[in-house]
Amino acid sequence: MSFFEKLNHAIAHNQSLLVVGLDPNPEMMPKRYSTGEYSGDLMDGLKDWLHVIIQQTADLVCAYKPTYGFYKALGAPGLNLLEQTLAAIPDSIPIILDAKHGDLNTSTVFAETIFTRSRVDAVTLSPYSGQDHVAPFLIYPGKAVFILCCTSNPAAVAIQQYPQPQTPLYLQVVKEAKTWGAPEDLALEVGTTSPDVLAKIRAIAPERLILARSIWAEGGAELTQILAAGLNANGEGLLIPVPQDMLATEEPAAAIQPLREEINQARRQKIQQGSTCELWMPDVCFLEQHPHQDLILQLYDMGCILFGEFVQASGAVFPYYIDLRKVISNPQLFHLMLSAYAEILQDLTFDRIAGIPYGSLPTATGLSLRLHHPMIFPRKEVKAHGTRRVIEGHFEPGETVVVVDDILISGKSVMEGAAKLETGGLNVQDIVVFIDHEGGVKDRLRDNGYQAHSVLTISEITQTLYQAGRITQEQFQAFNHSVE
Ligand SMILES: O=P(O)(O)OC[C@H]1O[C@H](OP(=O)(O)OP(=O)(O)O)[C@H](O)[C@@H]1O
Ligand SMILES: O=C(O)c1cc(=O)[nH]c(=O)[nH]1
After folding, report:
1. Nearest to residue 321, comparing CAs of 331, 312, 334?
2. Planar angle of CA 385, 387, 392, nearest 5 degrees
3. Please, what is the Cα angle at 294 between 330 and 187, to 5 degrees?
4. Which of 49, 59, 335, 355 is deepest in the core (most CB within 10 A)?
């Protein structure tokens, strides 16, 4: 189950937006865990305290959030304690590791460690190293990241409000972070006591999950104001931390229950005030999710799938345009896309991979490197100078080539490419594309002796975008009319 599926399930099952921090902070540990039977054994005291918190709250929260720094500060026994704490959390509750990781050099290894060798579902990251730093965390399907957008530290104002309060840096961080990942894998962490700050972020990121922090600080706003500013119109999209002092009481559950009810009351009010379909929580209403939903939504968010009137190469006007050429500028997304192509190619038999220029040359290169098959390509136009080759790269006549392209509209480009390869003595049987525009193009290719395979059809894409609320009913209907 992905992070968001787990989270939505826990929110619904426990009727809660509460997140409990599982922090082995000796200063906050209640005295009863350091006296009597615990005297002199800090690690035992911390472990039992955290386990009691989990036992008491597992049916009251939607996520747990261990802070990595507290465990690291305890040395090797601390890291051992982290493993024990994670193991004590029920499988149904997602785990957000609060690491605020920010180092580019260690991002790949850290992402691999937490997402493949521990039960962590999501991690908090510092935004300063940019997308390069975040991308290694996003290559793990179903995992998520929380980007730290702002904190409530008084001294941070000088940075976060720069250059001026009307156009503060923290809002730029939100805007930029939105381009790094889809709402299904990239959420925001917002430390603030100010409903105004939360409202500004909610306004520019209505679709993002927000993990609120620091809302209980002295002098902060009322919880009702925080909820009004941060909840989306469905009364969701906001995770609320349980105040630390509640976790030190003998019966944390007794203190947390009324808080959960207060929050749920505000959620009901928000929904009654009139929810619209514009604001949504990822995944919540999907009955059947497309296996490549994540990829489709990210492509849409990146501007690779455009709706509106577009003239096609053939001169026809469609209510959409697919521009997959942009994907190369988003390594994380490009990686996901190559994996989807590779799933098809691995079942085919071929000696070389040929990309159709220009759009599909990077794709063919990526697949060649990943699948360890050499690449060639048929030129779009032959140069009047130099070697004047039609086919670039080395090959032997008689070899079999799989042709790779991004989209099939009329099939003209791939057939022209295949014909050039065939004039070089190569065999072409299979053509693999990312998107099939449908309308009988695969049949046309079959009639010409080629077997076409596609990752997605244009109908699957529009259906998924419509279900996810990315395109309007009018856009969906315009598409349906165009294919009637
Ligand atoms: O099935 P078809 O009707 O041939 O249409 C699909 C082709 O159109 C696009 O390429 P384009 O000609 O725009 O060239 P580019 O890759 O050089 O941008 C796309 O990359 C496909 O190759
Ligand atoms: O050739 C076209 O018509 C065409 C190319 C492309 O990349 N995307 C698209 O929607 N149409």
Report:
1. 312
2. 120
3. 75
4. 355
Q: Is the CB of 410 inside a 6 Å radius of any atom of ligand 1?
A: yes
- Tell me the ligand closest to 322's alpha carbon: 2
Burial annotation 253-272 (CB, 10 A radius, 16+ → b, else e): bebbeebbeebeebbeebee
Structural domains in the chain? 3-272 (3.20.20.70), 293-483 (3.40.50.2020)
410 is in an annotated binding site: yes
CA 321 to ligand 1 center in whole angstroms: 12
Task: Return the active site residues.
Answer: 100
408 annotated ligand-binding residue: yes
Name the percent of the chain in helix, strand, coil, to the closest 5.
45, 20, 35
- Cα distances from 446 to residues 14, 429, 440, 450, in angstroms, run 53, 10, 10, 5
Q: Give φ, ψ of 70 to 5 degrees.
A: -65, -35
Residue 306 forms beta bridges with which residues?
321
pLDDT tens, N- to C-terminus, the chain (484 residues):
899 999 999 999 999 999 999 999 999 999 999 988 888 799 999 999 999 999 999 999 999 999 999 999 999 999 999 999 999 999 999 999 999 999 999 999 999 999 999 999 999 999 999 999 999 999 998 999 999 999 999 899 999 999 998 899 999 999 999 888 888 889 999 999 999 999 999 999 988 999 999 999 887 789 999 999 999 878 889 999 999 999 999 999 999 999 999 999 999 888 777 544 444 444 444 346 788 988 999 999 889 999 998 998 888 889 999 999 999 998 888 988 999 999 999 999 999 999 999 999 999 999 999 999 999 999 998 888 888 899 999 999 999 999 999 999 999 999 999 999 999 999 999 999 999 999 999 999 999 999 999 999 999 999 999 988 889 988 999 898 887 7
The verdict on the CB of residue 482 being under 6 Å from ligand 2 is no
Q: Does ligand 2 lie within 6 Å of residue 321's CB atom?
A: yes
Which residue minimizes the CA distance to atom 17 of ligand 1? 358
